[in-house]
Design a protein that fits this description.
- This protein has 480 residues and is mainly α.
- Helices cover 49% and strands 10% of the residues.
- It has a 3-stranded antiparallel β-sheet.
- Helix 7 links the parallel strand 8 and strand 9.
- Helix 9 crosses helix 11 and helix 17 packs across helix 18.
- The chain is elongated.
- The termini are far apart.
- It binds one RNA strand of 75 nucleotides through helix 4, strand 6, helix 6, strand 11 and helix 11.
RNA sequence: GUCCCCAUCGUCUAACGGUUAGGACACCGCCCUUUCACGGCGGUAAUGGGAGUUCGAUUCUCCCUGAGGACGCCA
């Protein structure tokens, strides 16, 4: 059984890149009938917060990336938090120490920082020389008794090379001489990423490690730890990074990167999923719109690309628009409501009281929506009464100065006589306008700007009907 | 600087030695149309450069160039 995991550190919101990594893991698991596990890598006590953790959960659930195992999925959540698994790491560290595969290093951070800096000014790569690994047991004991703090490092054999076998990249070879002895325990006994990730992946039976390419250079180090521990090595798949407009790793300075921000902005989770799936992966056909189910059935790690992919908001918008158009009236209305409430178009009470009206106006705008938040600006004239013409509308109003008085006269007469039924109004208005010698384009444009204050929107007669008699009359009066 | 990875339209990508180098977004034009949009049709636009291998390279190899990532007692 395939087992994969997503292992974020709760040091901030779920990033769009992290979401894509989670997605690929999820798709792989579901496609192969495996398990998708969520693990919280919180060994950085300084920066980990409960808020981040909750936001990550919220983000993943919103995206539909629910996990099979992890926090909230078992009787004992502590299994999935690294800070609650400390005895396990200590046990393995102890084992390595006993087998002399690891040693205690008494070099201080300050000393090493100094050497690092020196190496930098001399333009050479810094590498820890392993001097504490040469200490005799007596010297080590002396240092310990003197109360010197120490970290634990795993010895790395300097001869030969390490080969990472990667599903997307093939074989990546690294000379061992470029590696230095790996710290696995800090002076405060807190284990370090490269160590916990190995221990946990093995303990949790992870078969495939699918993660961002930025971890590729860590992998040889981890392989050394696997070997030191006599652990089986899982399959690796390093997926390409998501890039910003300048081709560097996507970060805050490129724009919005928090998953939940996309929810606020009005993106549908299925659209974000659809878009993210296509970043660094492509199916064997030329389609671009996919549901999660379709992605699950199509996803293959072997079709993941090697090169980074730029995040293109335009395409995301397009895909979002398609998913919006695929919604039925009730689904879409439900999704638009929060934005309409937030902008003050409707109140909580209206949700029940005016539901049908709201749904009607939402459907009238459906084909125009690219992101849900646009619903408010688009629908304002259905909900407010005190709006004026915008600049474009004023131009139309001015341009038709010769006919506009007559147009409004006829419109008022028609509505007062037959009401606002859209089919009837259209029929009668066209006849009366033709009799008065006014072209359809002219009266329709004039009526449109008078009623809605803008030059664009749903069908004119839909607007008339939706407004109702009273509101139509009020608008006509305002411009007569 | 060192190590590693990468390289097809502006962007996301297809092609697994032989195609008029295909699709999607964006852009432009036309059609539909009362506006906007949707939709339909069409167009502009790419194999970074140089050597090989081969009858034939986008595809295989090498070099160059360019770009990115990693070089923490972060993950």
């Amino acid at each position: 059984m395939d087992r994969v995991r997503f292992a974020p550190s709760p040091t901030g919101y779920l990033h769009i890149g992290g979401a894509r990594t989670a997605l690929f893991n999820y798709l792989y698991a579901k496609h192969n009938g495996g398990k998708f596990i969520l693990r919280i890598e919180d060994t950085d006590k300084e920066r980990s917060t409960i808020e981040s953790e909750l936001e990550i959960f919220e983000s993943m659930k919103w995206l539909g990336l629910d996990w099979d195992e992890g926090p909230g999925k078992s009787a004992d959540d502590s299994l999935y938090y690294q800070t609650r698994r400390l005895p396990i790491y200590h046990k393995y560290a102890e084992k390595l120490l006993n087998e002399n595969k690891a040693y205690k290093c008494f070099c201080t951070k300050e000393e090493l920082d100094l050497e690092r800096k020196k190496a930098e000014t001399e333009k050479r790569a810094f590498k820890y020389d392993g001097r504490c690994g040469l200490l005799t047991p007596e010297q080590t004991k002396q240092n310990e008794e003197a109360g010197k703090p120490f970290v634990v490092r795993v010895r790395v054999e300097q001869a030969g090379e390490t080969i990472v076998t990667d599903i997307v990249r093939g074989e990546v070879k690294v000379q061992n001489s470029t590696l230095d002895d790996i710290i696995i325990l800090r002076t405060d006994k807190m284990p370090i990423y490269n160590f916990v990730v190995v221990v946990d992946d093995v303990e949790m039976g992870i078969t495939h490690v699918i993660r961002g390419e930025d971890h590729l250079s860590n992998t040889p180090k981890q392989i050394h730890i696997y070997k030191a521990l006599n652990f089986p090595i899982p399959q690796f798949a390093h997926i390409p990074l998501i890039l910003g407009a300048d081709k560097s790793k996507l970060s805050k300075r490129h724009g919005e990167t928090a998953v939940l921000r996309y929810r606020e902005l009005g993106y549908l989770p299925e659209a974000l999923i659809n878009y993210l799936a296509l970043l660094g992966w492509s199916p064997d056909n030329e389609d671009t719109i996919f549901s999660m189910e379709q992605l699950v059935s199509k996803f293959e790690l072997s079709r993941v690309h090697k090169s980074g992919a730029m995040f293109d908001n335009k395409k995301l918008m397009y895909i979002n628009g398609v998913h919006i158009r695929n919604k039925n009236a009730d689904e879409l209305t439900k999704m638009c409501l929060p934005y309409m409430i937030k902008s003050g178009l409707v109140t909580e009470n209206d949700i029940n009281g005016r539901y049908d009206f709201i749904k009607h106006t939402v459907v009238l705008q459906q084909e125009k929506l690219q992101i849900l938040s646009e619903i408010s600006d688009l629908s304002i004239y259905f909900y407010k009464n005190d709006y004026d013409m915008n600049d474009e509308a004023k131009k139309v109003w001015e341009k038709n100065a010769a006919e506009r008085v007559k147009v409004l006269e006829i419109l008022e007469k028609v509505i007062s006589e037959i009401g606002v039924d859209k089919t009837k109004v259209e029929e009668r208005l066209k006849a009366d306008m033709e009799a008065a010698g006014i072209k359809p384009k002219v009266f329709m444009h004039v009526i449109r700007v008078v009623l809605s204050g803008t030059t664009m929107g749903p069908g004119l007669f839909d607007i008339v009907e939706t407004f109702g008699k009273e509101k139509c009359m009020a608008r006509i009066k305002k411009y007569s």
